[in-house]
Structure to design on (626 residues):
């Protein structure tokens, strides 16, 4: 048995393989649930339970917002060939920027725009460091951005436990509550901070147009498909890469602003600000296959998984790590199906 | 001074073991970014088995779990020719998540009869020498290096590229599993969520710093060990927040990558092998 390249797989084959691999992932997930001591069927039901009522759907929408913003930026970065794995850290830096504006600058109508600007800028700066190290020294951005996640994590822990710890919060590790001017409006009683949602939809649309309808996007796509060709054409590869990286970091920073200004209304422990949005958004971007517009579909899909993970945590007091298991298995299933659909199985030698 | 060196070696040992495992696979042209997850899950398996049937069984379970996870990555990275980086990251998330989930019941339980750290430290040193001999003095080593440098040529000479890569991932996974077992059976000896604390990522960076040479990895690992020892020693005695110390390993990895970014890696590293392309 061996594999041969299959340049033109039929849609039926692709669909079949994705179904097969997702089925296998569900089976393995069931095994993990069994080992934990929970009936897999019950766990699956809980995982999908947010789809059943409006409150659950609002939870999904709330989880979708950061996934949409980050996923749109990552789909661009991946397309250009910059594997930004550090959206989690960029999100945290965005939250830090937002908290700085909210807590230490005089409040006014300019507060919210300033929060988004500074948060996005810090997110961009954070990934900019990794992009610079890649362009200048050839350091793998996969590892540097990943390491920066940990650095951002400890920065936030330091801030909320040390200099920024609130005056009225006693033993808790968070800052004081943001003033009214620094809070995003929400839809009714839900936690859906709609201005950030609009930003996310706008970012996906804008990046799609930028990538497929402008000279810059054309250069980006050439660089991603064939770096050697980009060099022959005289494109400035380093600069193009840096800009794409900065855009993805900026959007991840915006997502961080949305989380603290729309939901928590204060800076708190990193594990509570982000439930691994940075990692889950990698899946959203990977699923979208370098098309920012498609993230409008994939982000809500993964929002369901995150909201479902929350339901599992609440109903079965399961550690939230379960979301990592689900995300890891699905990611493996996706790349497995994608890889196999590009090949033909030949049974004889 | 003497204590510092001993602690440096003992702390460097899990980094060394995991790094040797990653190095073995990378010499064959396969990047294994799942180290952190493999270590986490093997540490748990080793601890659970040791509680049930003694430390000997624990070590076996750790090594076995690591090897199986390495083979599991091979399924995607070698057989299916999927993106090695994404597959490895997925495995890291899976391993960390599954260990956090399944290990909840062992949290805070001490191991009654731990393994001596020194024995495993010596074993790690011997394994590094052995890996050096394997790479440069055996037929398998020659195959492995040729598969990592020029798989097409190796294939033409009748070497099974996929077979060699599978074996390298399997054996490398076993070494990472031993690193995990060392943490939960000897170094701690207990199990807590997140106990790998980024050591897996340090190990990956160390492979680059060591320029893919097992003997240089020994020096690098002990250097990291010394830095970690200094970190513990200085903590509390200097006015630097503890978070800065906790962040240090990650900062080190970035520095290492920046300093050694363009050292020569195996030529076919990270590229799936397609015959006839």
């Amino acid at each position: 048995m061996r594999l041969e390249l299959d340049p033109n797989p039929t849609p039926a084959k692709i669909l079949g393989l994705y179904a097969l691999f997702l089925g296998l992932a569900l089976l393995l997930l069931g095994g993990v649930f069994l080992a934990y001591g929970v009936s897999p069927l019950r766990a699956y039901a809980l995982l999908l339970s947010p789809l059943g009522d409006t409150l659950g759907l609002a939870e999904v929408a709330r989880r979708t917002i950061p996934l949409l913003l980050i996923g749109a930026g990552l789909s661009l970065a991946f397309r250009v060939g910059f594997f930004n794995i550090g959206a989690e850290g960029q999100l945290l830096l965005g939250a830090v920027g937002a908290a700085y504006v909210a807590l230490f600058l005089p409040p006014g109508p300019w507060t919210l725009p300033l929060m988004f600007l500074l948060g996005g800028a810090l997110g961009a700066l954070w990934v900019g460091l990794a992009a610079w190290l890649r362009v200048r020294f050839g350091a793998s951005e996969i590892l540097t951005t990943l390491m920066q996640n940990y650095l951002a994590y400890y920065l936030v822990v330091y801030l909320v436990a040390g200099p920024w710890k609130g005056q009225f919060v006693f033993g808790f590790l968070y800052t004081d509550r943001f003033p009214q001017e620094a809070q995003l409006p929400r839809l009714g009683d839900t936690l859906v901070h709609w201005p950030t949602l609009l930003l996310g939809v706008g970012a996906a649309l804008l990046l799609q147009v930028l990538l497929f309808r402008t000279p810059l996007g054309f250069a980006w796509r050439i660089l991603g498909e064939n770096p050697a060709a980009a060099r022959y054409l005289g494109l400035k590869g380093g600069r193009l890469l840096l800009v794409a990286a900065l855009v993805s970091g900026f959007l991840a920073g915006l997502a961080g602003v949305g989380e603290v200004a729309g939901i928590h209304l204060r800076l708190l422990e990193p594990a509570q600000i982000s439930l691994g949005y940075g990692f889950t958004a990698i899946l959203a971007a990977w699923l979208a296959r370098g098309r920012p517009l498609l993230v409008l579909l994939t982000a809500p899909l993964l929002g369901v998984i995150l909201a479902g993970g929350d339901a599992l945590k609440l109903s079965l007091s399961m550690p939230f790590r379960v979301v990592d298991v689900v995300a890891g298995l699905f990611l493996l299933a996706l790349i497995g199906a994608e890889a196999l659909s590009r090949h033909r199985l030949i049974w004889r030698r | 001074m003497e204590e510092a060196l001993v602690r440096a070696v003992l702390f460097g040992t899990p980094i060394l073991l995991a790094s040797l495992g990653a190095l073995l696979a990378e010499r064959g042209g396969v990047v294994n970014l799942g180290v952190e997850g493999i270590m986490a899950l093997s540490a748990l398996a080793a601890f659970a088995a040791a509680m049930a049937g003694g430390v000997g069984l624990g070590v076996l379970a750790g090594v076995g779990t690591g090897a199986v996870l390495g083979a599991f990555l091979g399924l995607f990275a070698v057989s299916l020719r999927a993106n090695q980086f994404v597959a490895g990251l997925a495995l890291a998330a899976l391993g960390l998540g599954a260990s956090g989930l399944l290990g909840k019941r062992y949290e805070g339980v001490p191991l009654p009869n731990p393994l001596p750290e020194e024995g495993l430290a010596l074993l790690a040193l011997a394994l590094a020498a052995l890996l050096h001999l394997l790479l440069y003095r055996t037929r398998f080593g020659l195959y492995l290096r040729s598969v990592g440098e020029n798989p097409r040529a190796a294939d033409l000479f009748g070497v099974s590229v996929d077979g060699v890569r599978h074996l390298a991932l399997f054996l490398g996974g076993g070494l990472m599993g031993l690193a995990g077992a060392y943490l939960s059976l000897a170094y701690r000896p207990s199990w807590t969520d997140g106990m790998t604390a980024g050591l897996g990522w340090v190990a990956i960076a160390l492979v680059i710093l060591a320029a893919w040479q097992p003997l240089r990895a020994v020096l690098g690992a002990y250097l990291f060990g010394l830095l970690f020892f200094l970190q513990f020693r200085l903590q509390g005695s200097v006015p630097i927040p503890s978070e800065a110390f906790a962040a240090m390993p990650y900062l080190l990895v970035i520095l290492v990558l920046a300093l050694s970014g363009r050292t020569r890696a195996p030529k076919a590293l990270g590229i799936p092998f397609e015959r006839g392309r």
Remarks:
- The CA atoms of residues 20 and 224 of chain A lie 30 Å apart.
- DSSP finds 14 helices and two strands in chain A.
